Amino acid sequence: MVMVKFIDETTSGAKADAWHLEIFEERLALRELIRRRVFQEVAEYNAGQPEVFRGLVQPSDAERTLNGYRLREPRRVDAEQQYDRAIEAFGRNGFVVLVDDRQVDHLDTEVQLRAGTEVCFLKLVPLVGG
């Protein structure tokens, strides 16, 4: 088992607090790593129902806030739907994934996980005027 560190950043320089997830495999496809991340953040949100959802992608019927996404109506978030949205966002370059500072371009690429592995989800922010 390894403890993997997840970091969310944007190209504008914003950086969220890092969090950790225990993973038992030493190698996982990027697709599965994204799935586990999304399912964990949705489970944590659904367990506590905080005011703001802090996740990789915006849930349906939610508005962007400074620190995440506020759902218009309090409800449980669907993990499968969030996973599908994350895979779609990756496919249209909504974010890139860096594993130990190396970009992973394909969802089926297996990544090596070991103690101290850092996975950075870099959300791409459009340039003003461009």
Describe the structure in your own words.
This protein has 2 helices and 9 strands; from the N terminus they run βββαββαββββ. The chain is globular, with a radius of gyration of 15 Å. The model has no long low-confidence stretch (mean pLDDT 93). The protein has one domain (2-123): Ferric Hydroxamate Uptake Protein, Chain A, domain 1, CATH 2.170.130. The protein is α+β, with helices and mostly antiparallel strands and 130 residues long. It has helices at 30-48, 79-91, and strands spanning 2-10, 19-23, 27-29, 62-65, 68-71, 95-99, 102-104, 110-112, 118-123.
Q: Name the helix and strand elements from N-terminus to C-terminus, one letter apiece.
A: EEEHEEHEEEE
Classify the beta-strand content into a percent band.
Answer: 25-35%
- Give the CATH architecture: Beta Complex
Unreliable spans are none
Give the topology.
Elements: E1 2-10, E2 19-23, E3 27-29, H1 30-48, E4 62-65, E5 68-71, H2 79-91, E6 95-99, E7 102-104, E8 110-112, E9 118-123
Parallel strand pairs: 1-9
Antiparallel strand pairs: 1-2, 3-8, 4-5, 6-7, 6-9
Helix pairs in contact: 1-2
Give a short overview.
This protein is an alpha+beta fold.
